[in-house]
């Protein structure tokens, strides 16, 4: 089954028409709202280079899981 996703709001314009593989291999600064300087700081702090690396980072995964639990806790 083919799936189509509009990533335009998540990415800088230069990456809007990129394939998913290209996006995952793009620098963190390709995310909308992340400057080159901020992307460099994130990269250095978390020892990641790409959006894919960031998405697979154990600290990011833990934060996402905890935030999801927080939304569903009473």
The number of domains is 1
- Would you tell me the structural class of the helices and strands? mainly alpha
Low-confidence runs: none
Rounded radius of gyration (Å): 14 Å
Mean pLDDT: 93
Distance between the termini: 37 Å
Count up the helices.
Answer: 4
Molecular shape? globular
Q: Helix proportion of residues, in percent?
A: 40-55%
**Element pattern in H and E:** HHHH
Characterize this entry briefly.
This protein has helices at 20-24, 36-46, 51-55, 58-72. It is an all-alpha fold.
Q: Could you explain the architecture of this structure?
A:
The protein has helices spanning 20-24, 36-46, 51-55, 58-72. It has 74 residues and is mainly α. The chain has one domain. It is globular and about 40 Å long. It starts with 19 loop residues before the first helix and ends with a helix. The mean pLDDT is 93.
Layout of helices and strands, plus pairs?
Elements: H1 20-24, H2 36-46, H3 51-55, H4 58-72
Attribute tags:
globular, single chain, 74 residues, 4 helices
């Amino acid at each position: 089954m083919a799936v189509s996703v509009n990533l335009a709001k998540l990415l800088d314009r230069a990456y809007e028409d990129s394939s998913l593989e290209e996006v995952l291999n793009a620098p963190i600064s390709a995310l909308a709202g992340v400057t080159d300087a901020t992307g460099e700081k994130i990269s250095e702090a978390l020892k990641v280079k790409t959006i894919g690396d960031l998405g697979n980072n154990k600290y990011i995964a833990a934060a996402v899981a905890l935030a999801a639990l927080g939304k569903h806790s009473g």
